[in-house]
Amino acid sequence: MTTFDDKRIHFGFTLGINTVDFNFNHYSVIGNNPKFDRENLENVNGTIIYDTMVIRADIPKLIPGFTVGIVTNLRLSESFDLRFLPGMSFSERRIGYNIPIADVTNPGENNYYSIKSTFLDFPLLLKYKSRKMNNQRPYLISGVAYRIDISKTGQEDLVRLKPISLSAEAGVGWDTYLQFFRLSTELKFSFGLDNVLDDGPKSTQPQVYTHAFSKLSSNMFVLSFHFE
After folding, report:
1. How confident is the model over 51-108, as pLDDT tens digits?
2. Which of 1, 115, 124, 176 falls 20 to 30 Å from 94 in CA-CA distance?
3. Which residue, 210, 228, 161, is CA-closest to 49?
């Protein structure tokens, strides 16, 4: 495939495995949150939530998800390509807290709170390629991604997220030129740039799980296989 990289535009498809994580910005004590109600203290499974309590959340375990997409590649020069890779990602995040979890919609679960997401991904990336070495070519990639979460979210959710987010992306990859197509193996990191934390749940749900932090940003790691 000696002339493959000479094409001005070419297309393909992507299959990948992803994991999604959160960056938490916690309040030092929950009473520092201006929304904390000191007159009506919450009772979570027998634990009274006082304003001096330190509430922490974390993702104790990463859950693998699935990514599928379409590749559109525009050749800019010998070393640079512009790539647009719209697709869908299916993922799950499980948030653990240092207090029991009391979810009126799922009373049997008290170890973690699960957030399942279906993302529409719209990454626009610049690819820098090294010289071709026989049938191999390593590369670097960077850019931005616009992401829409189309999964169901409602006021009954303990932690509500905004559906739209913006991320910076960077990664490395390796092109392998086969007889009929090019296979690219790529590791990419996506770093959330904005706050995806929405308003708290409706009053029938505990507010402490949202009030514990001021900001959530969403990160994603993707191992992709591009067929072009």
Report:
1. 888 999 999 889 999 999 999 999 999 899 999 999 999 999 999 988 888 765 555 5
2. 124
3. 210
Spatial distance between the Cα atoms of 71 and 227, rounded to a whole number of angstroms: 8
Assigned CATH topology for domain 4-19+59-202+218-227: Porin (2.40.160)
Which helix (H) or strand (E) covers residue 208, if one does? helix 208-211
CA 86, CA 72: separation in Å to the nearest integer? 9
pTM above 0.90, yes or no: no
Taking each continuous run of H as one helix and of E as one strand, the counts in the chain are: 1, 12
Question: Who has greater pLDDT, 71 or 43?
Answer: 71
Half-sphere exposure in the Cβ direction for 200 (13 Å, CA): 18
Exposure b/e, 83-94, CB count within 10 A at least 16 = b: bebebebebebb
Across residues 116-145, what is the average pLDDT?
A: 94
The span from the CA of 49 to the CA of 54, in Å, is: 10
How far is it, in rounded angstroms, from Cα 222 to Cα 90?
12
Contact 169, 151 (CB under 8 A): no
Give the Cα separation of 21 and 183 in Å (integer): 28
| Burial letters 103-136, b for 16+ CB under 10 A, else e | beeeeeeeebbebebebebebebebebeebeeee
Residue with tokens 């296979």: 183
The full set of domain ranges for the chain reads 4-19+59-202+218-227
